[in-house]
Design goal:
The structure is a homodimer of 202-residue chains. Chain A is mostly helical. Chain A has 9 helices and no strands. Helices cover 72% and strands 0% of the residues of chain A. In chain A, helix 1 (9-27) packs across helix 4 (55-80) and helix 5 (84-101) packs antiparallel against helix 9. The structure holds a DNA duplex (19 and 19 nucleotides).
Chain lengths: 202, 202
DNA sequence: ACCTGAACACCGTTCAAGT
DNA sequence: ACCTGAACACCGTTCAAGT
């Protein structure tokens, strides 16, 4: 049993996040509980509430960490694909791949609908917005004549689309009973959208 | 307090589903519990487990009812839009509108990730598949030269896309901080995808 | 000051016991 | 046969009390 002053506040905080992440990866959202996190850390439940306002706040931080991991993958994908046309498709596939390889962590970002009273904090929204920015930077060179506002819409349309297909695929609701693989569907969305977008009237 | 034989098994079943739906509409997934459903019906918790295997099964039936309501709206949309081009867009908007007007019921279909041991039952998958069929029937006349397999992929790409944008919008993760309305983003997806799809090589 | 552990108000699910 | 209600094993969250 951990004694007082064994760990600093920051250490406890990190231990909690690490324990929670471990549980999520292994057992998913439903397997997570404050008591399990505490046990895993070697502390009591009460201690968690000295560090975090509630479980929602802890999960929010977990999700931010997941977003960082996702963005890192996306960053690598951008570097590896200097040609913008290929890069858009690669980014979309990277998103799907990330969701498949990190299902529980990725799912947590969407399963966790924070309680109505506590809206999404600004710093989290900012992190989400950064993802769109990443895509916008790849899209803009492809349609130099278009205004940033149009690219902004395109990034959201495309990203939302990829997200939806990924979500349905991961939760087994895409009805891919035939020969179609999810990748085929993803590529169809990206290719056809991009064709329409690039050739479309400004 | 309800006494034995006051209601038939089917009546109790319907009372449970009605009570649950009422709670969901008012308070969402987090506000739902077996005890609340039972209280609302005027029965004891135990009674619920004479009718349903568990809460997951009850929710599955609720979701089927929601799907029916959604398909009814989609059916009306198809009837009102005989021109296929317009119809695709109208259907996608109808999906978004349904999600906005029935947020809690619609959310339940995706918040509720049934426990791993109990996979999605066949009769539910069949209902989901029907939604894709509806869209396929509208898409096919637009690309008469294309094979059904391609239309099948297109339906999933488009529908998944619309679903993703809707989901992100409803849960406030689309970052529509600028002037862009969600409808603009939806239309961008549909228009550009369809342009690419219709003009694309078979 | 730091942490505990018991308490409160909830859960889903089961099942012996009542009518 | 139908339904109850108490029990079991869990929750998130709080806070007086200990060291």
């Amino acid at each position: 049993m951990a004694r007082r002053s064994d760990h600093s506040r920051d250490e406890i905080r990190q231990m909690a996040l690490d324990a929670a992440e471990k549980i999520i990866i292994q057992h998913g959202y439903k397997g997570l509980s404050a008591r399990k996190i505490a046990t895993d850390m070697g502390y009591t439940v009460g201690t968690l509430y000295l560090i975090f306002k509630n479980l929602d706040e802890l999960i929010l931080h977990l999700n931010m960490h997941t977003l960082d991991a996702l963005y890192e993958q996306m960053g690598i994908t951008v570097e590896r694909n200097p040609a913008p046309e290929k890069c858009v498709q690669a980014l979309c596939r990277a998103y799907y791949d990330f969701a498949c390889s990190n299902t529980h962590r990725w799912s947590l970002m969407f399963e966790h609908n924070l309680s109505e009273d506590m809206g999404i904090p600004e710093w989290f929204s900012a992190k989400v917005a950064y993802g769109f920015t990443l895509l916008e930077r790849v899209l803009q060179p492809l349609v130099k004549e278009k205004k940033p506002a149009e690219v902004c819409i395109a990034a959201r349309a495309l990203w939302g689309g990829v997200h939806g297909i990924t979500m349905l695929a991961v939760t087994d609701k895409l009805d891919v009973s035939g020969v179609n693989s999810v990748t085929e569907i993803l590529d169809s969305l990206v290719e056809n959208y991009m064709q329409g977008f690039v050739s479309g009237a400004g």
